[in-house]
């Protein structure tokens, strides 16, 4: 499949300097720091990072689902409108009708005491003018669309009657009920077995092609990213450290953290039969040192790295359009061939 | 028996385990029979000293039940487990205590398997003293030794489990198992809750420990990348049965069972975008309460024939040291 598109359609969703902060200690500290992203129509963007990197928070901030204690700054422009400034009525219309979310654990995201049919119906009732019979027809159509067999009968079933994979399909059906243009998927396959994960990934690809969905896919699995994402953004300690076409980022990474992630995957062992683990641990958001957040764990870090905060930008000498890295020494990485 | 005449460290033969399924009130009133879910159905395996045997399969395939049977957290309904040639099911008293000390389990979630109200030092020295491995006075020295072995700082002994990150807790879980100087470690999905970079640290730790201490390991996992990297031999399970077993690299590069092939094809690989809209395998796992007749994989198998629907394929060895439970595997006598 053609992953790097030649024409670049305008972005439907733009994040600019999105920052999420929490109160704590002497003031507030940022857990998502200045995230800027563009998502185009029909594009699947992978948002990759380890636990605590801020990827799920970024997703929730887009839909304004964060608890009140977390402050969000910056802007989330959806089709020319700033979601962060939207009033309650607009938000209600946006959520479900234009953008919707798929969660990691369908069993906790679905209501256990309502049948799947009722849960699809709820969303249709809130956002469409369809009558009861039309809503029922639409619900059957949706279960068919996501590949749940004998849809008519399954609508009356409760979530516990569904297997893990079927539950995730049901959740995708609910998310798609009102024809949203944007789907935010928060680790939708992490709790599933590989064969079922494969089925769900293929389903998402098919739905993207058939319905022209734009998808932000949050995951920690670089294999999954490689399978379905057109573009990828790598997050570390609340910041995007590298972004570009998936193939470029995974085959010629220009940030030491991305390289470290790829190297620490089994299958990329060094000559002595050991994995190249990244030493140490990610910094605590409250105890962040100045300079590059990755510097304490980085083998390439120089004196400047612990002073200057690197900015995400195109790398001098990189031939690939749209490839950006937040590393002071990115140009040196090109000289080394950018190989993981 | 191996060719050298030594019994293998652990030998499992025809192990079966069924769980009773609760009936609802209406089912009981209607006098429906009790139902049973078959978690293990005739599993046979062998573990040699110093080797790592991986058990892979999807959730519900019985891999964790097998691990729990091995440490006698479950008792098996049928079949036997032999440790150095001695039947574990017949062990009593001192002999059983000895077995339990030698075969140690590490659990998936270190936080729920550590006592939150005991410091790491207390947890470790309890295991040492209760089992009489060291007198109480020497325990602190041994604790320091163990912490060093798993690359934790010495002051970890005075801290509580909640003060550690996920990767560090898993190191504590490993130290707890090593405290008993086991000859075999059974690791049940110990990496699945960890991030990739931390996971790599733990994998390196396991490899170096195995080299230094000559440990044998049964490594239960659903992560095929890790299994390929870490194990010498691999057993692939499906619905309570072993469908294929052999040298890890050989199985991964030339899988013989259709289920193994489908499982490997479904695993996402970096730099390998399929870009097609069909999945490697259709359908889902059948219910363990109502296993399909014949080969349990036949409803999802693209190659299934009439024979597969009626007759159970036995796990048979081939000349290459591989065992496959499939009627269609090469080398089987045509019927």
Automatic annotation (TrEMBL), chain A:
The residues covered by the ABC transporter domain are 13-262
Q: Chief localization class?
A: membrane
Identify this protein by name.
Methionine ABC transporter ATP-binding protein
UniProt lists the family membership as follows: Belongs to the ABC transporter superfamily.
GO molecular function list: ATP binding; ATP hydrolysis activity
Highest taxon of source = Bacteria
NCBIfam families in the record: oligo_HPY (TIGR01727)
Keywords assigned by UniProt, alphabetized: ATP-binding, Cell membrane, Membrane, Nucleotide-binding, Transport
Keyword Nucleotide-binding attributed: yes
Automatic annotation (TrEMBL), chain B:
Q: Which GO terms describe its biological process?
A: peptide transport; transmembrane transport
Residues in domain ABC transporter? 10-264
Per the record, membrane topology reads: Peripheral membrane protein
CDD domains per UniProt: ABC_NikE_OppD_transporters
Q: Which InterPro entries match?
A: AAA+_ATPase, ABC_transp_ATP-bind, ABC_transporter-like_ATP-bd, ABC_transporter-like_CS, Oligopep_ABC_C, P-loop_NTPase
One GO cellular-component annotation of the UniProt record comes to: plasma membrane
Principal subcellular localization: membrane
Could you tell me one molecular function GO term of this UniProt entry?
A: ATP binding
Keywords, A to Z, come to: ATP-binding, Nucleotide-binding, Transport
- Report the transmembrane regions from the record: none
Localization in the cell: Cell inner membrane
Instruction: Name the Gene3D superfamilies for this protein.
Output: P-loop containing nucleotide triphosphate hydrolases
Organism superkingdom: Bacteria
Q: Which SUPFAM superfamilies match?
A: P-loop containing nucleoside triphosphate hydrolases
Return the similarity comment.
Belongs to the ABC transporter superfamily.
Mind telling me which NCBIfam families this protein's record contains?
oligo_HPY
Q: What is this protein called?
A: Peptide ABC transporter ATP-binding protein
State the organism named in the record.
Paenirhodobacter enshiensis
